[in-house]
Amino acid sequence: MSNLYIMRHGETVPGMPDSERSLTKQGEAEARAMGTWLDSMLANDVRAALRIVASPYRRAQQTAQWMATPLERPVETLPIITPDDPLEPLIDWLQQEVAHTPCLLVSHMPLVGALVGRLVEGDVRASQPMPTATIAKLEADIWAAGCATLKHWQSPRELLG
């Protein structure tokens, strides 16, 4: 059984180009709170093995860095997880790269919502709403459509009040 933490980046400023948008002060607070929360939730062995993988877009990289700091883990960039990328290459990547390794994936809507929906419900039309900086914890023996279980859902709103 392996764990996948799927996270949407924190709140972001508007603007163009989309790939260069940054976190707002609220987005930084969201990411910082979620990093502290996840650090408190993980067992030491899971934390030591955790891979943090982020979209190359600025806001996802910033969010991942806020997550990485309390977890003391490096951030990897995965170019196939930008907002409108297809799910199939990502699911293939999950099967190959994180079959037995816990992973925090930091990306964007609609990709994160569609990924949770596909892995849990198995339906290509399924999508889960994901407010900014929310984390969905999934467990599975294999990362394929309909094979995961949603084990936990955490929003920064519950932590920040």
UniProtKB/TrEMBL annotation:
<dbReference type="InterPro" id="IPR004449">
    <property type="entry name" value="SixA"/>
</dbReference>
<dbReference type="InterPro" id="IPR013078">
    <property type="entry name" value="His_Pase_superF_clade-1"/>
</dbReference>
<protein>
    <submittedName>
        <fullName>Phosphohistidine phosphatase SixA</fullName>
    </submittedName>
</protein>
<dbReference type="Pfam" id="PF00300">
    <property type="entry name" value="His_Phos_1"/>
</dbReference>
<dbReference type="GO" id="GO:0005737">
    <property type="term" value="C:cytoplasm"/>
</dbReference>
<dbReference type="GO" id="GO:0101006">
    <property type="term" value="F:protein histidine phosphatase activity"/>
</dbReference>
<dbReference type="InterPro" id="IPR029033">
    <property type="entry name" value="His_PPase_superfam"/>
</dbReference>
